[in-house]
Amino acid sequence: MGPNAGVAFTKSEMMIVAAARELAGQHVCFVGVGLPNIAVNLAKRTVAPDLELVYEAGVFGAEPARLPLSIGDPTIVTGATAVTSMWDLFSLYLQGGRIDVGFLGAAQIDRFGNINTTVIGEYDHPTTRLPGSGGACEIAINAREVFVIMRQSRRSFVERIDFRTSPGNLGGAENAARIRRAQGWLGSGPSVVVTDLGVYHFDESGEMRLDALHPGATLDDVRATIGWEPKVAVELATTAPPSEEELRLVRVELDPDGAYTR
Description:
With 262 residues, this protein is α/β, with parallel strands linked by helices. The chain has helices at residues 11-21, 35-45, 86-94, 136-142, 173-183, 219-224, 244-254, and strands at 28-31, 52-55, 59-62, 82-83, 101-104, 108-109, 115-116, 119-121, 126-129, 145-149, 190-194, 198-202, 208-213, 231-238.
């Protein structure tokens, strides 16, 4: 399955494909709704066929035949390894240290990977009330790694988030590690952020670093859509474009109506 530079693709398709590729080699992934859902299901069809999908409704080892519409979609139960209560899933699986990756979306994120999915504006008088945490905070502190997928803009990549729903690298990597040990959290925090412009990882200071640009994106595009001066890898890579098979899976099997890729 090689890259196919001759086929046109959208920025959203590139983001989904790049996010799916980051899951190569992972074994158990706790899936959030929205963009993480399609990225993880693409990974299971491509780079990670043995990936165990976990949905917070209480399903472990999901084998969805189509893209689930939500965590309550019955398709996540068909063929699953286990269906449990949410209490069992969170306390025995997530807090039991059995989740390799928590894959989340976000409305706002800062340079240290702190995530807001609660409100835009002041908490008591928000301009927008968002869905809130759901299970995201628990996933962010107890999954071994946290992957994030979200479109990049100055409204979403901000110097200071309006509300911290899920902690990232609080006060830098060293301080975050100390807090996590003191609190008994199992995870090491965010490790990957994939946007419609590129792929970020986190450096030794716990700050986001741009490691790859998607085809067609530029550093000017990145700087115009981020609320701080971004760190950039010395050897900045270019993301391989989607292959024909990756695009077929996204367009035909996972998102035929273009809900995520328009």
